[in-house]
Design a protein that fits this description.
- Strand 8 and strand 9 form a beta hairpin.
- By secondary structure, the protein is mostly beta strands.
- Strands 1, 2, 3, 4, 5, 6, 7, 10, 11 and 12 form a ten-stranded antiparallel β-sheet that branches. Strands 8-9 form a two-stranded antiparallel sheet.
Length: about 190
């Protein structure tokens, strides 16, 4: 179909701005440089967004995740907890290309942004040693256990909440959104 500039501005550039709330629950996988065997962990996010136009918006999220892994390089088990915060530019490709159609059930949305993670990790080695980072300097977390003997060890801490290690993030992803009702959507979000 051919669109006139008037139709295009009405369908694609309409000012349907609104605030919205997002929430998510899902699995997380850990896969590092050394091919870690990962056990799926649970993660959650909550956030708020502002849809400026039918095809562009901004969204901020807070989240947390628990990860575990094991059976690599002498480590029996590894436990990691992560807190995250990020802000993303959201581009609704479906509305940008095809205009806003209220009857559409599916939408493809790209997002990219900036944020940070705060993490802590504890690794338990096959020989009984335990190493950690991001924990406060408490004996129950920062000990090496070998031959029934407990020796205190130095564990690096960061500037995050309760000594967590802080890292900048640049989340990028794609969302497949399915409209359940006029007010609710189900989103499948793949973010790196």
């Amino acid at each position: 179909p051919v669109f006139t500039s008037r139709e295009l501005s009405r369908d694609v550039l309409s000012s349907s701005n609104y605030l919205y709330v997002v929430g998510g629950l899902g699995t997380n996988l850990l896969h590092g440089e050394n091919g870690i065997f990962s056990i799926p962990g649970l993660g959650c996010q909550v956030g708020i967004g502002y849809q400026a136009l039918d095809f562009i918006g901004i969204e901020g999220k807070l989240g947390c995740a628990m990860l575990s892994a094991g059976n690599f390089e002498g480590i029996e088990k590894q436990y990691t907890s992560i807190l995250e915060a990020n802000i993303n530019l959201m581009i609704n490709l479906t509305n940008l290309i095809g205009g806003n159609r209220g009857s559409r059930k599916y939408e493809w949305i790209l997002h990219a942004g900036y944020g940070q993670t705060q993490s802590r990790c504890r690794a338990i080695y096959e020989n009984g040693d335990m190493k950690s980072f991001g924990y406060p300097d408490h004996p129950e977390y920062n000990n090496t256990i070998a031959d029934g003997k407990v020796d205190g060890m130095w564990t690096p801490t960061g500037g995050g909440i309760n000594g967590r290690i802080v890292a900048r993030t640049f989340p990028v992803g794609v969302i497949l959104s399915y409209k359940l009702t006029e007010r609710f959507k189900l989103n499948f979000d793949l973010t790196t």
